[in-house]
Amino acid sequence: MELISKEFSKVEKKQKEVADSTVDNIEKMINEIQEAQKRLENDPENAGVALKELEQKFKELAAKSLESHKEFQKVIARYEKSVDKKWKNDITIASNPEVFANKEKVLNTTVALHFIREGRFELANRFIREAHLCIPDTIQTQFHEMYQILGAIKLEDLEPAIEWARLKSKELEKRGSTLEFELHRQRYVQLLIDRQEEALTYARRKFYLFRAHIQRLMCALAFKTRLSTSPYKDLLSPDLWIELQNKFMRDFCNLLGMSSESPLYISVTVGATALPTILKMATIMKEKKNEWSQQDELPVEVPLPDYMRYHSIFACPVSKEQSTEENPPMMLPCGHVICKESLNKLSRGNR
Amino acid sequence: MNKLNHNGLLVLEQPFIKVPLEQLKKTAKVSHKELDRELAKASLTVSELANRSNQEEIRVSDANFALEGMVGRLQSLKRKAILNDAKVEEAMYVSRSKQRLSHLNELTHIQSANSEEYTIWSKVRLDRILVDYMLREGFSETASHLANAESIEVEAFVDVELFSQARRVEQALQRFSCNEALRWCNDNKSNLRKMQSTFEFNLRLQEFIELIRAGKRGEAIIYAKKYLNSFQELHLKEIQRAMTLLAFQPGTKCLPYKKLYDKSRWDTLISQFRADNFALNSLTSQPLLTVTLQAGLSALKTPMCCQPDNRNINCPVCSPDTLGLLAQNLPLSHHVNSTIVCRLSGEIIDEDNPPMSLPNGYVYSLKALQEMYNKNGQIKCPRTDEVFEFSHLKKVYIS
């Protein structure tokens, strides 16, 4: 990238230079002509000499300005060379149009849902119209609600979120979510700062459900006049607000049966990371006249960050194969696990 | 794994940098040619004047008059050099390249994949990729809305006007008119020749066929003489076959000629135009959205994804109506090491949080089971609802 940036800055400089020098040269030409005109008028006898001189000068100037243009093109060519050096491969060998054939509608729906999830409703609707998609309104209404509540949290107004959590209390608890408590906690801290007398009443009213977590919060009351320098100052951290927003979004989506991050975003981000690996593989396979996308399983591992692993994978430490329904993992009495086929093979030798 | 591999991530960005570069090259060439032409013309006039006055064929007043005219022309050339479309475009492509390069440079300064900056950067990348997809699929309204309204930045990152030019040519072809396409061929003559494109020949051939279809055989022959002749060297066979078409009626059942009359040839022309136009401008032949999606879905896909029992709502491949459907024909990801994801907490199981097996064979993470035990005083398998004591758990070794 550094080389490219360096070559590019030359292009940028030259472009300005050429533009200026072209104008400059043309101005000079005009001056020369006007000069010659004067000479013709004042000294018609030597018109031939004057014109001859003009011809000479004119040619020089023309050559000069064309030369600078040519140099500009040369600089561009050098920049192009540095770019081509960086990007040699055609990335489309990593994509097979057959795989998504006749699935345009599915792909477009995925994109539209992505816009809705991100709260870009106007954009989503425009796209739904333009691509003639059919997406139930309920999804939009639901996400509308989510973004409204989220907007309120951002403005540090917790009421709508608390109300929502109260309505969904049972479902949230079933998922082991502590969102409702955290919302109340944040509200309590808010009161502790502004209206201390209400904080205690609020705590009495709301915290009986969450007895296990409230000791610290109640102790914070003792420092209500100087909370920011107390041992409880962590309760004031602005990060708690961000965390609350994220938690709310995650729980809201999960209760709708949807992932907390846009699946399209995850897939494309993983894809961008995986592309170099897949590209290398596709190039090798192409030489052997194989198409990577037609295989049952990729031949190499594409590393994923932890939070993007969603399913358990068991790879047998003996055979190095992934387990399947037919070849499930088996636990030995010692607690070690290998897959069934490996187990059979091992026991055959020892019987 | 959480460290970003910058060079790897940049692989995708070839068209991002190449497209404005290609256009810059083109405009620089055009403006050079124009200047060359104008100056050559002016030079010639001066030389002529000098010559004629030397041989005393011209009066001084006439020479003066001619010079006056030149001043006028040069002044307009100067105005052009400042205000000319090509110059403005040139400056635009330079600034566009600059913005794009600095966007990529931004990436090289982000270290961790978990950082807020990377998320923001990736979101912009996704928007870029989506605009590219929309433009290719012809959803121009959504595309321009996405490019303009959301973040001002994205506008310099996408090539809307390139596609709107292409759109005009495509629409003309849909109306069975080759004019726009032929003009495009003329504008890009030398590059198309370099690519050995057969597009222009196919356009000419189609116009010839349409003349015959309309019953204008005489005109067709004149047309062929005028335009098809120059393609003889490369396309003799096709020209011969096309000439035979003169003897067949549009309703013919004779296969090779029926094919020539087929209207679907126009669709082929459109797709050929697209392919050539993409190649000419260094755009990838497939939208980046499908390239990245195919790679990403395959890397995420596991045998568990399509099973309703093992569905994880956070997994993209597990959405049965959308991405799951798209991933259907893609290969599964490959793993040499086991990853066990706890079904209770969703966390990845490791040495600090080892897997524990219940007597019924199901495995969960120690932390999640402990939490459950502390809360309820017992352990209840979420899959079978069987209840166990904590002492029934057995540590599992998965290497």
Please count the beta strands of chain A (DSSP E, at least 2 residues each).
2
Tell me the count of domains of chain B: 4
The ordered string of helix (H) and strand (E) elements of chain A is: HHHHHHHHHHHHEEH
Low-confidence regions of chain B: none
Oligomer: heterodimer
Summarize the main sheet of chain B: 3 strands, antiparallel
Overall morphology of chain B: elongated
**Percentage of residues in helical conformation of chain A:** 55-70%
- In what range is the share of β-strand residues of chain B? under 5%
Largest sheet strand order of chain A = 1-2
The 3D shape of chain A can be described as: extended
Notable traits:
heterodimer; A: 351 residues; mainly alpha; 4 domains; two-stranded antiparallel ribbon; 13 helices; 2 strands; B: 399 residues; 3% strand; zinc (chain B)
Give a concise summary.
Chain B: GO terms for molecular function: ubiquitin protein ligase activity; zinc ion binding. By secondary structure, chain A is an all-alpha fold.
Helix and strand topology:
The complex is a heterodimer of chains A (351) and B (399).
Chain A: H1 2-42, H2 47-86, H3 104-117, H4 121-130, H5 137-154, H6 159-167, H7 169-174, H8 179-194, H9 196-206, H10 215-220, H11 239-255, H12 263-287, E1 329-331, E2 337-339, H13 340-350
Antiparallel strand pairs in A: 1-2
Helix pairs in contact in A: 1-2, 3-4, 5-6, 5-11, 6-8, 8-9, 8-11
Chain B: H1 6-10, H2 14-54, H3 60-83, H4 85-108, H5 116-137, H6 140-150, H7 154-157, H8 160-174, H9 179-187, H10 189-195, H11 199-213, H12 217-228, H13 232-244, H14 255-261, H15 265-280, H16 288-300, H17 323-327, E1 355-357, E2 363-365, H18 366-376, E3 379-380, E4 387-388, E5 394-395
Antiparallel strand pairs in B: 1-2, 1-5, 3-4
